[in-house]
Amino acid sequence: MSAEIKCSFMKEVPLANLCPHPKNTNRHPERQIKLLAEIISFQGIRHPIIVSKKSGFIVAGHGRLEAAKTLGLDSFPVDYQEFENEAQEYLFLESDNHLAELSDHDHGKMLENIKELEIPDLKFLGIPDFDTESLKMFEDDGLGALDNIPGGDNQEQTINENKEPSVCPRCNFEWQN
Q1: From the CB of residue 65, how many other CB atoms can be counted at a distance below 10 Å?
Q2: DSSP 50
Q3: What are phi and psi of 19, to 5 degrees?
Q4: Is the dihedral of CA 65, 67, 71, 76 positive or negative?
Q5: Where are the beta strands (DSSP E) in 10-87?
Q6: Which end of the chain has less neighbouring CB within 10 Å, N or C?
C-alpha cells in the first residue's frame, strides 16, 4: 500500500531502516495508532518522521511509524536534523512529546468550523455519516471518537505490549517498549 506524501522531506526511508529512540517515554495506545492510520489514509502523509543525524534514532514520529506499519507502508518520508549533543537530542524528543498536552481544545469552535465547512465525510474519525450531533463525543474528553473507530476498543493497549524486545535494524540495540 502507499499513501500520498503531502509534506516536504529529505528522503523516503524504508520502515525497516527506521529506529525508534530507546529513550522515548511516550507510549501510543492502539486506538491512537488506528486513528492516525485512518487520518494518513484519508489525508495523506502531512508530517515526516524526524531522525537525529547524531544517533540515527527517531526523535519525532514514533506514532507515525507505527501507523505506517499498520497501513502496510514500505517507506515513510524522513527529515534528518543535527543535534549538538545527546542532551539536546533527548530534550527535543521530550519537548515534542509533551508540548501539545499544554494546549486547550475549543470543542464548540471545532463544531462551528465543521458546520461552516460543510464537511461531508468524517469516516477517518470513525463517524460513518456526517452528523454534527455525532461530534458531541469530543465534548466528553476529546478522545471519544477514538472509541468508535471500527475494530477499536477502550483498552489502553500499547503497540508491542507483552512482545519481544524491539531491535534496531541498523545497530541491533534492543529495548522493551
Answers
A1: 21
A2: E
A3: -110, 115
A4: negative
A5: 11-14, 49-52, 58-60, 75-81
A6: N
Nearest to 76 by CA among 16, 17, 14: 14
* Cβ neighbours, 10 Å, residue 35: 22
pLDDT band at 168 (very low <50, low <70, confident <90, very high): low
Q: Which residue has the higher pLDDT, 29 or 121?
A: 29
Q: Is the pTM of this model over 0.85?
A: no
Q: Is the predicted pLDDT of residue 55 greater than 80, yes or no? A: yes
Helix (H) or strand (E) holding 166: strand 166-167
Alpha carbon distances (Å) from 120 to 78, 127, 131: 32, 11, 9
* Cα separation, 69 vs 126, whole angstroms: 20
pLDDT at 119: 65
pLDDT one-digit tens code per residue, 67-99: 999 999 999 999 999 999 999 999 999 999 988
Q: Where are the domains of the chain?
A: 11-104+154-175
Q: Which of 165, 102, 107, 116 is nearest to 136 (CA)?
A: 107
Identify whether the C-beta of residue 83 lies closer than 8 Å to the C-beta of residue 11: no
